[in-house]
From TrEMBL:
Gene Ontology CC: one annotated term: protein-DNA complex
4-aspartylphosphate modified-residue sites: D51
TM region positions: none
GO molecular function: phosphorelay response regulator activity; transcription cis-regulatory region binding
Species assigned in the record: Engelhardtia mirabilis
PANTHER family per the UniProt record, alphabetical: REGULATOR OF RPOS, TWO-COMPONENT RESPONSE REGULATOR
Keyword Transcription: yes
Source domain of life: Bacteria
Presence of keyword DNA-binding: yes
Record key words, sorted: DNA-binding, Phosphoprotein, Transcription, Transcription regulation, Two-component regulatory system
Protein name: Transcriptional activator protein CzcR
The Response regulatory domain, residue ranges: 2-116
DNA-binding region: 121-217
Single GO BP term: regulation of DNA-templated transcription
Length: 222
């Protein structure tokens, strides 16, 4: 999974970020609301861990802005504000969970996993492919496919689009977390590698000329 940690305490950002990376996840951090908005706008996060008390604005306004713009990225408030009214306010505002500081890292990790499972389900089936974004593996006809972390992230991004075409800029933002560079062929190279990994199911990834790539789903993908 790819997570964004938003907190003005550098020690907490380092602690959570290090723990998430050791658990096999990708992690980026933001120190205030402005950095958080910019990071989420770039896209590609599975969960945002958001503090309520930020130096430039509160977490409520960050979440309200995201939801008002139609951004449904899962958000977990991680805050020292432990009053019941605060927790209710956070959940009513559209947060997926509310974790009170101080917390045990194992509990944080369990809550992140639970939120993603609720939002996405434990696995996605696209034609002959079964893709599990939580356990980070993909199967073809019941057999595990050997994928690099980046290849797996690319497959997940295509699967989550549910048949929609994703442009190269879309994929660069969601998989690599970077803006489009017209001079790079990174997406094309990785799509080629992913197709080779998929073997007999390579045709599931379709090139849409002039637009990008899509993962075909349903019986036609067999």
């Amino acid at each position: 999974m790819r997570l964004l940690v938003v907190d003005d305490d550098p020690r907490l950002r380092d602690y959570v970020g290090r723990g998430l990376r050791e658990a096999g996840h990708e992690c980026e951090t933001a120190a205030d609301g402005a950095e958080a908005r910019a990071a989420v706008k770039a896209g590609g996060f599975d969960v945002v861990l958001l503090d309520v008390m930020l130096p430039d604005e509160d977490g409520w306004s960050v979440l309200n802005d995201l939801r008002s713009q139609g951004d449904e990225t899962p958000v977990i408030f991680v805050t020292a504000r432990d009053a019941v009214a605060e927790r209710v306010r956070g959940l009513d505002a559209g947060a997926d969970d509310y974790l009170i500081k101080p917390f045990a890292f194992d509990e944080l990790l369990a809550r992140v996993t639970a939120v993603v499972r609720r939002r996405q389900g434990s696995a996605m089936v696209r034609g002959p492919l079964r893709i599990d974004p939580i356990d980070r593996h993909a199967d073809l006809g019941g057999h595990r496919i050997d994928l690099s972390p980046r290849e797996f992230d690319l497959l997940v991004a295509l699967a989550r689009a549910d048949g929609r075409t994703l442009s190269r800029p879309d994929l660069l933002r969601s998989v690599w977390g970077i803006e489009f560079d017209p001079g790079t062929n990174t997406v094309d190279v990785h799509v080629g590698r992913l197709r080779r990994r998929l073997g007999s199911a390579a045709s599931c990834i379709q090139t849409v000329v002039g637009e990008g790539y899509r993962l075909q789903s349903g019986e036609a993908a067999h």
